[in-house]
Amino acid sequence: MKARVNVMLKTGVLDPQGEAVRHALGSLGFAGVESVRQGKVIELDLAETDRAAAQAAVTEMCEKLLANTVIESYSVELV
Amino acid sequence: MKARVNVMLKTGVLDPQGEAVRHALGSLGFAGVESVRQGKVIELDLAETDRAAAQAAVTEMCEKLLANTVIESYSVELV
């Protein structure tokens, strides 16, 4: 089973990487880009075949390693 | 209009970051993680309100800045 995890900085947390992308887009002539937030996407290939067990395992992985829950939020999607 | 861009390394391109995550998950006791690929997600807030124009603009941003199309593939999603 495949899982996709999206990790984004929480709203209100400064995102210098996204801000740099916004500036760069402006310099390249792309007008009308109001804000940019950059995050991570992690695709996992799991041996687990049970959806509920996979969801629980991936959520635990996020809490322990994949996301810094102080400043980041995550979402898990099974595909 | 909001757009979400997913940038992943193309299949076959070595992903040391993903590999490091896989090892770390193994060390933490998560068995059955067969492979991990890590990519970027970029959320853009656009002034553009026309879907087709927004899609075209974001695709051009990907080609010019957001993705290195030699080794990365991208997908654009309007939300």
Write a concise synopsis of the structure shown.
The first copy, chain A, has 79 residues and is of the alpha+beta class.
List keywords for this structure.
homodimer, 79 residues, alpha+beta, Mth169, Chain: A, three-stranded antiparallel sheet, 2 helices, 37% strand
Description:
Chains A, B: This is Phosphoribosylformylglycinamidine synthase subunit PurS. Chains A, B: It is found in: Cytoplasm. Chains A, B: GO terms for molecular function: ATP binding; phosphoribosylformylglycinamidine synthase activity. Two copies of one chain form a homodimer. Chain A has 79 residues and is α+β, with helices and mostly antiparallel strands. Chain A has one domain: Mth169, Chain: A (2-Layer Sandwich), CATH 3.30.1280. Chain A is built from two helices and three strands, in the order βαβαβ. In chain A, strands 2-1-3 form a three-stranded antiparallel beta sheet. Chain A is elongated and about 50 Å long. β2 of chain A pairs antiparallel with β2 of chain B.
Discrete helix count of chain A: 2
Number of domains of chain A: 1
The proportion of strand residues of chain A reads 35-45%
> In CATH's first tier, which class of chain A applies?
Alpha Beta
Characterize the main sheet of chain A.
Answer: 3 strands, antiparallel
Biggest interface between chains:
A-B, 32 and 32 residues
By DSSP, the count of extended strands of chain A is 3
Span of the ends, CA to CA of chain A: 7 Å
Architecture of chain A, CATH level 2? Answer: 2-Layer Sandwich
